[in-house]
Amino acid sequence: MKEGKVFVHTPPAATTSPSRKTQRTGNPTTNQDRPEPSTSQVHLFLCGNPDRGDDGAARAVLTLLPQMVWATTDLHLVAGIDPLDLCNMAANEWCVIADAIQGIPAGEVSTFSLADLAASARSLSRHEDIPPVAAPLLPRTSPHPPAVPETPHPQSYVPRCPATRTSTHALALPETLALAEALRGTTSQGFFVGLGGSSFALESRLSPPVAAALASFARTIVFALCCCRQEPRQPPMKFTTALPTQPEHGAQPERTVPGPPFSQSPHNTSPLHVQSPAPQQKSTEETSRTHLNKTTQYSAHKEKNRKGGQ
Amino acid sequence: MHKTNGAERSLDVSLITRVEGEGSLHLLVQEGKVAEARLSIFEAPRYFEKLVEGRTPQEVIDIVARICGICPVAYQMTAVQAFEDCFGIEVAPETRALRRLMYCGEWIESHALHLYMLQTPDFLGYPSAVAMAQDHRDLVANGLRVKKMGNTIIECIGGRAIHPVSLCVGGFTHLPSRKELDALRRELDAVIPLATDTLRWTGNLTAPPFTRETLFVSLFHPHEYPMNEGRIVSSGSGSHTIDLAPGAWADAFHEIQLEGTNALHARTMSGETYAVGPPARIALCGDQLHPEAHAGLSETGLREEIARNPHWGIAARAAEILHALCEARDIAESYRPPAEKAVPWTPRAGIAAWTTEAPRGTLYHRYLLDEEGKPRHATIIPPTSQNQGAIEHDLVESASGLLHLSDEKLTAELERLVRSYDPCISCATHFLAVTVEDTPSAKNTAPAQEQ
């Protein structure tokens, strides 16, 4: 159920060049069209339809993202990934795509390399069965139990490569990635973070298991963003420590997982560092919401227009 | 697997690729001649005609949009005009233009999807658009931009690109601003050259050498390329020529149930198969194309070929993409908001019937309404069910000249022919499995189609 598209951009940040705004307005599709790439740019695509039950999970996770994400990431709220979205990225830019998915238990979080997903689409010929993609680079997490030990991914849990089975209403992610790769001449680098959903009916509420997994979903997205910012940008192949929890209001930041520091981020701490608010400052969530209010005006306007038409 | 049994050869394509939906192809060859070609649609019946019974007109408009994610506007537009015709509603010229603009958006995105992503790989020898993009980046990128343009138009008018929500009986629930259409016009200016190049490019392609005679049916409007209005006309001459009001489709056509397929087939009252869609519109209404599209098509020299060879549907769609883009630009440029979003209306009992031109061809709706305007009975005739007979006829004709090919190559050629019609079965798959099996006797094969 992929429908209209809304882009939301973060406020200009220290790492964001002024040209970033204008870059997004056109449809550059070749390397020559693109502006000078920013070496630090990471894009976060939150996909889904908030009126379709659990499909709105990625939108719902927005308010749980820490300030660091808002300051250092180009954020896109979209119904689904379009190849042109990826073509608009510079060759050295990485991205994280988050969406609700089917095929894994509701509330489970799985992470995959975009390169692996694209390769799974490329490798298929017309008569082949669909192979699983590589094992996830990050562990699946679930609120029940809190963390699932890292195990080989059963094929049934892997998002099915749609190269031969997708709807033509819209390209599925592996095909989109493969197509964008062909158009850009380079592989889209980054991660897909999926949250298993159970109900995609016409409703604005999340199912209980998905709602309970939002914090875990947010942490995994943050971790994937951090992996995109590592220098060299190599995702950790083994990661067995439990992911950190979202700090409560006024709590000290947690650093449960060591990792390479940000190379360009002003928040030069751990990849999993979530900045704690100063006593007189707003909480992270409040700050995020402030940013949300400022930056989703266009989105809200569009949504209002849409609702007005219903 | 390839097997033959004596003089018989049976070819089954269990799932046809790069079409909108789930269908299969069965071909039976006896004594060196094609005895039967059957395009079977095994996707489960979806009962939309039953679902709309007892619903309000607005609910019907929203429900029928869900029949297809590619052409929801066509279903909405046909239903809304059927109701308006029955209720005696006349919409403002500005509303009429806005609806036409919305329909242009659907033609653009639907045709672009088929042309660039589904059919062009056949002409260039690739198994998919993804594979083709490796070597033809600009072509695919342009295709994506053209398709996105169509989606943007629908989103601007209808609130969202797929299953739009603004269309209602009497007009719209929401009107775009002048500023929004100015922005749309600027985007159209940038995309039109891409479509012009594409149309020109189709003139350099080489299609399989297959020709046939068929009956074409489409709407015809004396002053514009057919979309929302006009009379149902057919090719041919003399007393057999069809010329009907848009709500009178059932006077000249009927549907039949055939064994082995879940889709009804449409025939003329005399049992003839016929073709609808872009080639039919070009053949019957080509002079009404926008001047830029008309000139572009003339430059290709393919207008006559489009009527003879279904593979040249690619050129017909390219011409219609350019037409729709140019007309959308013109409408956006001259846009003035209607005085009111929707004119008030009162329901009445009666027959609500209308025909419009969906991207894939003539689409007919008929509702028997009660005094509240709620359907007691509904009939929806999509273009694909009208084209199925012509497709099967063409398969027989085409396969007869291709029997020297291996099963794999024969399958590829026949699939290509089916794809040239852009059949929209519903939600599509891209999976193909081919089996060629022994057929002990003709009795064990599916029965020949009714006539």
Walkthrough of the structure:
The complex is a heterodimer of chains A (310) and B (451). By secondary structure, chain A is an alpha/beta fold. Chain A has one domain: 3-Layer(aba) Sandwich (Rossmann fold), CATH 3.40.50.1450. Helices cover 28% and strands 12% of the residues of chain A. Chain A contains ten helices and six strands. The two termini of chain A are 17 Å apart. The model of chain A is unreliable at 1-39, 125-168 and 234-310 (pLDDT under 50). Chain B has a domain at 4-45 and 387-444. Chain B is built from 13 helices and 15 strands. In chain B, the strands form five sheets. In chain B, strands 1, 2, 3, 4 and 15 form a five-stranded antiparallel sheet that branches. In chain B, helix 7 runs antiparallel to helix 11.
Overall number of strands of chain B: 15
Beta percentage of chain A is 5-15%
Oligomer: heterodimer
Helical coverage of chain B, percent range: 40-55%
Strand percentage of chain B, roughly? 15-25%
Give a brief description:
The complex is a heterodimer of chains A (310) and B (451). In chain A, 28% of the residues lie in helices and 12% in strands.
Characteristics:
heterodimer; A: 310 residues; alpha/beta; Rossmann fold; 10 helices; 6 strands; 12% strand; globular; disordered N terminus; disordered C terminus; B: 451 residues; alpha+beta; five-stranded antiparallel β-sheet; three-stranded antiparallel β-sheet; 13 helices; 15 strands
